[in-house]
Write a structure and sequence with these properties.
312 residues; alpha/beta; Rossmann fold; 12 helices; 57% helix; phosphatidylcholine lysophospholipase activity; SGNH_hydro
């Protein structure tokens, strides 16, 4: 069954969009038969009118969807949270396209941007700095290398919390390297090397900052919506999430934030046009999940800061 996944990649457009997604979402063709050019002027006018009506109808249908997405984002940002933060707070986000916010049509930085907006609204008197160093397509080895970037290392050095997304592109590399004969064993062979690289990422962050809390966001199965009948895909995601949890458990001041369940039964309304990355609504769910997990550490950080100030 995994060979089917390899064949799916052959359907991918250079831009990263899925042809299978286009075929499922586009209900009408974007071309007409050559004989249609010989129709009368009246027929053309009727077709134009009908086309305009269809476009208007499509636009009307799109508005409720867009409104729903905006409402989902607003619900996260506007939710009243009891975050007692009066001191400066610095969050550094590093990782792949999920950190960059690929698929977020608002260009607000995906879950990281929504997280920042929510924190600023919840604690308007505090100084909130959120740095986003996400890069689309980055694997664990590339993220590890980018940690040597002076801007990134300096941001981590000053951070109270570090958020990390990594692993999805490592899985994609395995798929692309074994398109025609993909098996579960191909993923098994890469588990230990991936764990070593992930551990190195944590160690490199610790070299820059001994005190920051490091949160690793888990992986979700982006193929679940169209290929839920391939159980191996879920098994792979489960395996690689377990690697992440095990690495986190070996660290101090670290946590694992699961996101798989957020997308397990989510429909198209949570995905971008590429049917792979989250859209604003999907990222809003991620931001809400991240806030739930980091809130205790935010308040603990504040308590520690208050104690330091009282001792001075």
């Amino acid at each position: 069954m995994l060979m089917l996944l390899g064949l799916v990649f052959l359907l991918m457009l250079p831009s990263g969009a899925w042809l299978v997604g286009s075929s499922l979402s586009d209900s009408s063709p974007d071309h007409t038969l050559s004989g249609a050019a010989a129709t009368s002027s009246k027929t053309q006018q009727e077709d134009t009118t009908a086309s305009s009506g269809t476009a208007a109808s499509s636009s009307e249908e799109q508005r409720p969807f867009e409104q729903g997405v905006q409402d989902a984002v607003a619900s996260v940002v506007n939710e009243t949270r009891r975050l007692f933060i009066s001191s400066d707070l610095h969050i550094t986000a590093v990782g792949d396209s999920l950190t960059k916010g690929t698929g977020d049509s608002s260009d607000n930085g995906g879950y990281v941007g929504i997280l920042e907006d929510s924190l600023e609204k919840s604690v308007p008197d505090a100084s909130i700095q959120v740095d986003n160093y996400g890069k689309k397509g980055n694997r664990s080895d590339q993220i590890l290398e980018r940690l040597n970037n002076p801007k990134i290392s300096s941001s981590i050095n000053q951070a109270d919390i570090v958020l990390l997304t990594v692993g999805a592109n490592d899985i994609m590399k395995i798929v692309r390297s074994n398109l025609t004969d993909l098996t579960y064993d191909d993923f098994q062979e890469e588990k230990d090397p991936y764990k070593q690289r992930l551990t190195s990422i944590f160690e490199r962050i610790r070299e820059e900052n001994e005190d920051a809390v490091i949160y690793l966001l888990g992986l979700y199965n982006p193929f679940n919506m169209y290929f839920s009948d391939i159980p191996e895909l879920d098994r792979i995601v489960t395996d690689w999430n377990m690697i992440g949890k095990n690495v986190v458990n070996e660290q101090e001041q670290a946590g694992f934030i699961p996101i798989r369940d957020l997308f397990q039964y989510a429909g198209p309304g949570y995905y971008a046009e590429d049917n792979f990355h989250p859209n604003q609504r999907g990222y809003a769910s991620m931001a809400d999940q991240v806030l739930e997990y980091i809130q205790p550490d935010l308040e603990e950080f504040q308590n520690g800061t208050d104690e330091e100030n009282s001792n001075e």
